Amino acid sequence: MYNILICDDEPDIVSALKIYLTGDEYQLFETYNGRQALETVDNNEIHLVLLDIMMPEMDGIQTLSRIREHHNMPVIFLTAKGEDTDKILGLNIGADDYVTKPFNPVELLALSLIHI
């Protein structure tokens, strides 16, 4: 079983992702800001993180930087920030992939399977 953390401040996005990722092979964790995500990563064996960039309290860039201090699981940014400079920044700080909203859920599922 793979543990996937979904971190996005939009509950509708979290709910949609849960629909596509629900199955016997995944246990899903949901958080709504970077601080919650860090707590979840530190206290659970997480195999993949789907991480939004624009969130309250701690954005996804800061969250990923903190995750990379102690963990090396795959992280896919899932964000509305679609400029090339945003993508390059995200990949340079340690994201394994970068998907812009709106996204194709089937494509995201395929990317998730590649990175697990």
TrEMBL record:
Family matches, as Gene3D superfamilies: 3.40.50.2300, 6.10.250.690
Species of provenance: Lentihominibacter faecis
CDD domains membership: REC_OmpR
Domain Response regulatory residue range list: 3-116
Protein name according to UniProt: Stage 0 sporulation protein A homolog
SUPFAM superfamilies: CheY-like
Gene Ontology CC annotation, any one: cytosol
GO molecular function, one term: transcription cis-regulatory region binding
Pfam families tied to this protein: Response_reg
Residues where 4-aspartylphosphate is found: D52
Function comment: May play the central regulatory role in sporulation. It may be an element of the effector pathway responsible for the activation of sporulation genes in response to nutritional stress. Spo0A may act in concert with spo0H (a sigma factor) to control the expression of some genes that are critical to the sporulation process.
Alphabetical UniProt keywords: DNA-binding, Phosphoprotein, Transcription, Transcription regulation, Two-component regulatory system
Organism domain of life: Bacteria
A GO biological-process term: regulation of DNA-templated transcription
